[in-house]
């Protein structure tokens, strides 16, 4: 770099400095100019979705963000000036410097600030932070121009591969809409379905009709060609009745997306609710159920209630309660069913914004859970079986797959043995069978060492992944070594620690190991037979932490 500065670098400089820089560079102090040039690196460094500002060393650095970073995973603090613990790529998307297609970003280190504001921009909600030691800013790089991916031609049968989604259209079949507008609705839904680019590798759609009782008209697997779907929509008959949208939404979230009915693993689940006027029933519970099932709910509402009608609407905030996230993205207004053609494309664009589907991630499909199992002599054979049963019962609640949740187990005495790691098994059956096959070690108790071992060897390889990490320390007694230091280190590494004690496990140790708030992360039972009763609270605890971390 020092010896031969290729011309592209100067070009980069001009782009950055703009016209003023271009025309005034003769008067620009040469040493400053050189120092700016020298700070550039020719090729941007490839970073991951999760690389943070503080991971970079230089004052100014050009980096390359990968495509398709999961937006809901980003931690971003501030707006314009970002705290250095923010994700660089997250900040760059937030700032509008790049899109989710990735690209080159210039990162400039800045001093710390007193306050970092929270701002929602470009699909990312940044968070508030007070007083942080260092910051950074992001700007665009001209190289981005050359990194655009060429457009692929559309393969009809495969469909639009860039729009992977499993979509249920929940159409309004109530007396509110009536036969005539029902037909206009069918027309609109048909146009949306065609524009989506339905195909074997693209979006799949099904239809549910909401009226008095919900009716699943066809499932995702019934048709994988746009023509067939269009035909099936044309054939739909109007059912009539009250507009029990809440009931229909709940039914669809629970019943529509099973694997047998054609839902695909790892693909966002979407319900698009079409609503003429307002629902006769409540949407709040249905909205909660949909979120638990990882469904992204959109509400397309047509014909808002008039001022005279407002008194008849039982809950005026029904849209906010039903949608996946109340950030404006998931609701869509159309004034009438007439002349809706111009509303087709914007809706399709929303449904195809893979990275905006925040609600696809749930506490069931996006966690890594490691169990650290006490195999000391005091436990005994029979109780050890009960511990394994407890581990199985917790593991059973999660959706284990290569792209979903993962389970690992380590047994410890003075020694540690990785029974299986996060990457060993990709199905629930395999994990449950591996738990059954754990052989009791018997020996002393060194819980601290075991935590350190697990943090390093079991969580080490997955710590930069998308899942949230949990460690369960199961013990029946006093540890011979210090547990506080190792537990604090595990928490610092981003692992939420739950302690589960039985019999002689000292409550102080359990509390000291557990993550904050300690009370809700500490469990205790006098008898091993009491472990089973803890399972529901533990699963709820994981889900609570997961949802809190997404706020
Ligand atoms: C959809 O598929 C299911 C199961 O294969 C079948 O029972 C049902 O009749 C199909 N529906 C339509 C509308 O073709």
TrEMBL record:
InterPro entries: ECM_Assembly_Org, LCCL, LCCL_sf, VWF_A, vWFA_dom_sf
Gene3D superfamilies from the UniProt entry: LCCL-like domain, von Willebrand factor, type A domain
Transmembrane segments: 7-27
Biological process terms in GO annotation: regulation of cell shape; sensory perception of sound
Domain VWFA stretches: 166-351, 368-538
Signal peptide: none
Gene Ontology CC terms, in alphabetical order: extracellular matrix; extracellular region
Function recorded in the entry: Plays a role in the control of cell shape and motility in the trabecular meshwork.
Listed name of the protein: Cochlin
Species whose genome carries this gene: Strigops habroptila
Gene name in the database record: COCH
